[in-house]
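Q: Could you write out the predicted structure for this multi-component system? I'm mainly interested in how the pieces pack against one another.
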Amino acid sequence: MSQRGNIPILRVGSNLLTTIHIDLHDTIAEAFQEDVLVAIKNTGAKGLVIDITGLEEVDTYVARILADTGRMAALMGAHTILVGMRAEVAATLVRMGFAMDTVETALDVDDGLAMLQARKALGRK
Amino acid sequence: MSQRGNIPILRVGSNLLTTIHIDLHDTIAEAFQEDVLVAIKNTGAKGLVIDITGLEEVDTYVARILADTGRMAALMGAHTILVGMRAEVAATLVRMGFAMDTVETALDVDDGLAMLQARKALGRK
Amino acid sequence: MADVVQRWEMPIRTEDDVILVRRKARMLAQERGFDAFATAALTTAASELGRNALVHGGGGGALIEHLADGTRSGIRITFVDRGPGIADMARVLAGGYSTARSLGLGLSGTRRLVEEFDIESAPGAGTKVVICKWTRY
Amino acid sequence: MADVVQRWEMPIRTEDDVILVRRKARMLAQERGFDAFATAALTTAASELGRNALVHGGGGGALIEHLADGTRSGIRITFVDRGPGIADMARVLAGGYSTARSLGLGLSGTRRLVEEFDIESAPGAGTKVVICKWTRY
Ligand SMILES: Nc1ncnc2c1ncn2[C@@H]1O[C@H](COP(=O)(O)OP(=O)(O)O)[C@@H](O)[C@H]1O
Ligand SMILES: Nc1ncnc2c1ncn2[C@@H]1O[C@H](COP(=O)(O)OP(=O)(O)O)[C@@H](O)[C@H]1O
């Protein structure tokens, strides 16, 4: 898929999987969001798994980018699942008062994809 | 499981069960939260039952620690159920204006584990 | 008029001191026939105020008094500290306002748990909070 | 009293500079035996404050210091900028207030992640924030 940014977006069945392994800052973050939306449009994907296993820290800026990406995907009809958040990242975000309650989460990529399959089987988008 | 704090965390099927029987203050509370999150990561648990049958009082500080632990677990993809809250504790918290509405609750450990099983059967995390 | 039957002075210098004050309140409430709800209300209030005296007031002390007015038993607890005091009392008592990593429901909530609640504080002069709870009959 | 064992001065002029400050803090924390939770707390705080110095303060610098007090290691980071400063400090520290397109949890949240947090700012005179975090033992 043609992309502006350099964060890979893979097609897995009827869903998309993107793995964030670099710092999401300003221009990169914007390009990432736009790439994801274009990929959803092009593939007709109903689900998106964002894998952040590789992120050693997530500040409130990056957390907002991730939550916003999920909201944007939802507007296009795709359901987002954020997976792989490390224990220390989860603890830090909550201690800062950040409630990422708009995005569904799962432990890892397999769980995230399985949850999207289960949604599909239930006939939800 | 190796832990910093001294609150036991047990594995029950694909879930974790932790029983709080001592006062959760400052350093203990932080160690407890971190132990729970590391256990979720290590076991891949999808659910967490926090049993507070043993707590004779829960002030707003401890209530926040419990609610935050549920939020942290949620960010990692695990669902938390708080069980065993005494009638007088529930009454006191509500009278103080504390709404523990971010955490699901159940009567006792059996009910909590059954609720987690039911979620699993539905294919939700 | 209520008579003071017995009194205990306890320091509040550490987290463990707060727990000791709360335990003393619990024991006394149970001895005096407070039911589970009244006991939880009193001890939770003691926990909130003891913690405030320690965390916001930099430490101080608690005075626990067992009162009797002929028919009922009462427990009065006075928390004192020599900390910075509370500048914006109205805001704090309204609830939801906190200068710390917490919820700001301590004082506003405590007030709803006891029959008597009295607070005195001047910036720089420390804080004194008195609460009192009575058995039902 | 804590001794300064080593110090590094780093500029904050670009987004990449913010990342470098954070990486330096991470490396040092790991070398000094901070666990994963303490390391994430420190580096996330560094990320928030470095970003503020750049975005709100128009750039500045960071001073990272490795401290030792005999038994424990500490990492202190000072962020300085010559930007507009913060007029309504109380509001900003309460959290949830932002003049940017963001959440306003940076300063209030950072404060909860570290053991020491000190902020000085006067309108027009820039902003200085000092944070410090210690190993547990
Ligand atoms: N003993 C005290 N001394 C000074 N300030 C206090 C004291 N007790 C409460 N405060 C102030 O009032 C605020 C609200 O207190 P409280 O309602 O107990 O909530 P919390 O302790 O969760 O902040 C505190 O954040 C603090 O600024
Ligand atoms: N270094 C600084 N210089 C000037 N203003 C600042 C600085 N840091 C923070 N602020 C102000 O405080 C507000 C809150 O900052 P913060 O809590 O970090 O949240 P955010 O950066 O998301 O807005 C900012 O929107 C800005 O107005």
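A: Regarding packing and overall arrangement: Residues D 48, 52-53, 56-57, 81, 83-86, 92, 97-100, 102-108, 127 surround adenosine-5'-diphosphate (ligand 2) (CB under 6 Å).
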